Amino acid sequence: VNPMPREEGLDHTLSLAREGYLYIPNRRHSFNSDIFETRLLGKKAICMGGTEAAELFYDEEKFMRQGAAPNRALQTLFGAKGVQTLDGPEHKRRKEMFMSLMSRERIEELIHLIRKEWESEVSKWEGMDQVILYKEVQEILCRAACQWAGVPIQENDIKERTKEFGSLFESVAAIGPNHWLGRAARNNVEKWIGELIEEVRNHNLKPLENTALHAFSWHRDLAGNLLDTEVVAVEVVNIIRPIIAISIFINFTALAIHQYPDKKAKIQSSDEKYTEMFVQEVRRFYPFFPFIAAKVKKDFIWKGYKFDVDTLTLLDLYGTNHDPTLWDNPGLFNPERFSKWKGGPFSFIPQGGGDYLTGHRCAGEWITVEVMKAVVDQLINKMEYRVPEQDVSFSLVSMPSIPASKFVINHVKRK
Ligand code: HEM
To answer: How many A from CA of 237 to the centre of ligand 1?
Structure first.
């Protein structure tokens, strides 16, 4: 057994907050090691990144999710008792419930809804002096996501609900008032969805069969029981919230189209394959989820390093996507790199790695890619716009990172 490279000191939670997306990559670089030990939230913790570390992290014999997510994330981003916190057969059963919604036909229906909403918004944008894309896109996604999930929502409520869903993922790393806004938003949203679930179960509300609201309300666990209303609400929110969060990648997509006109020209002159490569590069290049957390399930030794049961372990997502041993010139925005990319479940992990059905990899990764491809088409082929002077800088510290101006466009015209 060898000692793991170790960051000296009592606690480094503040360094993590100060360095954000770069906290783990900086130390992987300075220790010249894909794995190191530190102290976070008052306890020993392990941080690791790269393909082999990712493969290890997704080994269910060695790591578990129960008890891994910090309470502040459960109170805002994830919700209590959701699929993210489950392990083993219970997780698989719940994950099947999510993946049953991810058929090609269902994804196409969502894309259709988003395109329809987008096109009617363009008419509105034509009459506006300036359009803050982040905000407008969130409303489009909120409308489409609710409809897709079978959740009825009044036009009057769209703005407020969009804000609430947004604050679930905007508040996760916030301190002070914004964090508490996120908690309040979670309570409101779960209460609203919970009431709808009760109506479904009382047969007063009949959402279409293949919607999340229907499927989750009638889902049975391994023991054959319906889930608690609160758990169904958390899981329905686990569909709507992340669809609205695609607004962050959409902002970066618009930024990339603006900043790399040669790539834009190539999208216009190439087939859909290139659009997909462009979208993959947006997901690799720009920051979104910095890392994910698990706990060591039982003592084991890996590459001579000892892992003690219960140790909090973080997998470096951002750093793995920027790992110079996996990616040539990782700091260069270069969609062409995906034409020769060999693939593999553990090296390109903006939405987690491993397997969808048996592991925790993001249930919505296919949706995310398809939505982004549709948006590239809308932005490039279906409308014209200008991008006025603005501060489009984005931080590698604050999480989630969003371009400062939230991307403003003007002189919008339908093509
Ligand atoms: C899990 C990222 C969109 C539903 C995750 C995980 C990440 C992630 C990093 C954790 C993986 C792990 O713990 O191993 C993202 C990003 C998105 C996105 C960056 C872009 C907006 C979506 C969408 C949906 C979705 C659109 C649903 C429609 C889920 C669910 C899980 C998850 C249900 C939990 C899976 C599990 O624990 O088994 N996502 N996601 N996500 N995501 Fe996404």
So the answer is: 12
259 in a structural domain: yes
Atom in ligand 1 nearest the alpha carbon of residue 94? 38
Q: Is 6 a domain residue?
A: no
Q: Which segments of the chain have a pLDDT < 50? A: none
pLDDT of residue 309: 98
What 8-state DSSP symbol labels residue 220?
Answer: B
What angle do the packed helices 229-259 and 272-285 form, to 10 degrees?
110
Q: Which atom of ligand 1 is nearest to the CA of 86?
A: 37
Give the per-residue pLDDT at 177. Answer: 81
- Indicate the number of domains in the chain: 1
User: What's the CA gap between 243 and 169, in Å, rounded?
Assistant: 11
Q: What is the Å distance from ligand 1's center to 182 Cα?
A: 18
pLDDT computed for residue 251 by the predictor: 98
Q: How far is residue 403's CA from residue 264's CA, in Å, rounded to a whole number? A: 19
pLDDT, position 171: 85
Q: Give the range of the structural domain holding residue 43, as residue numbers without chain letter.
A: 13-414
* Predicted pLDDT of residue 172: 81
